[in-house]
Every structure is written in structure tokens, then in C-alpha cells.
Automatic annotation (TrEMBL):
Protein name from the UniProt record: Lipid II:glycine glycyltransferase (Peptidoglycan interpeptide bridge formation enzyme)
Protease among keywords: no
One Pfam entry name: FemAB
Listed PROSITE patterns: FEMABX
Domain of life: Bacteria
Amino acid sequence: MPSVRPITPTEHRDHLASLPSASFLQTPGWAQVKSEWRSESLGWFDDSGKQRGAALVLYRKLPKLNRFLAYLPEGPVIDWDSDCLRDWLDPMVAHLKRQGAFAVRIGPPVVTRRWTAAQVKEGVADPDVKLLGQVPPEERSAAGARVVAQLHDLGWRHQAAEGGFAAGQPQYVFQVPLRHPDGTARTEDEVLKGMNQLWRRNIKKAAKEGVEVSAGTRDDLKAFHDLYVHTAERDHFTPRPLPYFEVMWDALNADAPDRLKLWLGRHQGDLVAATLAVRVGEHYWYSYGASSTEKREVRGSNAVQWAMIQDALASGCAVYDLRGITDTLDSDDSHVGLIQFKVGTGGEAVEYAGEWDLPINRALYKAFQIYLARR
């Protein structure tokens, strides 16, 4: 059974750098972004002292009590193919309990099901289909099913994706594979041909209209943020403040150069679209986006997305990740427009194992759930 102990940010970074990829939410830099929470880097070590795993733990304090929810977003980074997850999770839980955790929340980075873009499109068109789960998947992961079964057996509780925890991560995402099944890279032409006609037309139109996309610097974050606030007002969501993105830029790029990139789409000098992208190893995420209400006809959003996909391909990435979607396929649901936009990329809907809780102190855990439900 591996042993678990705290590690330095440098040990944490070095271990992640030895892997094909890991979630950016499990990097030491993310601890700086979430500085309002106490954080800790953990390492798993075998009997010879070799590091076998890592995790970023965020401790969320209970009001008025010196007890914490230990949260590992999209982690820990361990061998999830193990037939004995208890050997990995038990020493972690024992350590977190000593740190004052009343419960632990994890997000295994393990895929359970996949659906093709065509399947999602057919599901939206079918009036009898309301949820993604009603569509038979293209692929069911045996490894994912094994993880879910083991977590159930070990007493972990699956959390609904729409649950009240503010930091909860999406269980369903939309991804564009950038490699063939044999591991060889797809070309730009192959990725483009995989998109639907509207996406291809919009990318071509943006180029014809003269939309210019470039990578920005930290100084351009203010311009991104102004457009993001405009987008938030139009689309009715609460924007994050500018300092959040400045900290995100500094922290993630301190972990690795160009980990966080800013992309700006301009038309005749006007900023029409802007995005933030994150890359860890072979995984490339579209993180935040903004677009102007004016000049929508020049298709700046499509141009910026295409620039990011091209950058992901040039960086040797295996996947371009458009992040969260809901599991609704109801054409009357307001969220379905976002799914349709992402489906146009020709990628696939991916279900992860989701987030799981292990109550350590059941009374405090129950009180915490009641507190969240009342917020």
C-alpha cells in the first residue's frame, strides 16, 4: 500500500510533468487561484520511496468550527486503473482526517461513457429524448465502471452533477479528439472536415471578413475582462473580477510557461471575441470566453476557437476540451444552445465518473449538506 505525505509545490510540479497530462485543477498553481481556501500538496510513495501519485487538496472550513471539507477537484492523480483503489484512497483519507477533515470530496478523472456528435444531434432532434443518458452511448468504459463499483463498495457517495457545492466540476464535457485511435495526430484538415457545415462556413466567413486572431499578454487581460463583463450582462451570469484572472495568469504560468493563454479576435481594430485556454501536457482546455453583441456576423467566436484548436494541434495535444455541458437534450431547455454550439465542432460528449463524497464525521457532514441546501 503506498504511503501518503505532504510534498512541496516543486515535487508536485515535477511529478505532473512526468505524466501525459492531469487536470489543471490538480496543479500547485491552482492553489494560488483558490487562495481563500487552505491548500496542501500530497504525494503517494511506494516502499522504495518512488513517488507514484499526487494531489492538490483544498480545505473548505465549516462556519464557526475548525473542521474542513477536503476537496480534490478532478483528482487525485493516482493509478485509477488499480483493482484495489482502497490501497490508494485509505492512506489519503487517514491523512486528511488528521488534518481536521469531516468529509472528503474527490473527482476521479475517469471516463465512463462517450457519445458521438451525431448521436447528440439526433438526441436533440428526438422529442422523446430529454437527457443524454437516454441515448445509448458509442462507448461504455469498463475501467470507468470498475472505478464506480469500487467507490460504491468503499462507502463513497456519488454527488449529482447539479449539486449545490459551488466549486463542483462538470460531470459531462465536450471534447474534440486530436489523435486517431492508433495514436497518430489528426491534421488540421481532418479536424475541420469533422466539423459541421455551419462551423466550417463560419470559420471561412471570419477569415473572409478579416477577423485577426492573436495571442495576448497579461496586459491584455483588461480588454478581455471588459468584453467578458459585457458578455455576462447579455447572457445573465455573474462575472468574476479582473484580479481573479490576473492571479490565474500569474499562478498557472509560474507552474509552466504558456500554461494559460489569452486569445483575442479583432475585426478592424474592434475586439469581437476573446478566450482563455489552459494546457497541461497533452490536454488543452477552453476555459473562459467572451464575445461582443455587435459584429456577431463576422463570427469572431468561431475564429478564436479555430485558432485554439490549431494551437492545440501544434502543441502535440491529444484532446481539445470545451469543458462542461449539461446532460439535457430537451430542445426547449435554454442550455441546449450551448451543447449545439459545441457539437458543431464534431467532437464527442464525454461523461466522467463525477464527484464522490466520503463522510468521516456523519453528523457534521449532514449539517454541511443542510447548510449548502439553505444557501
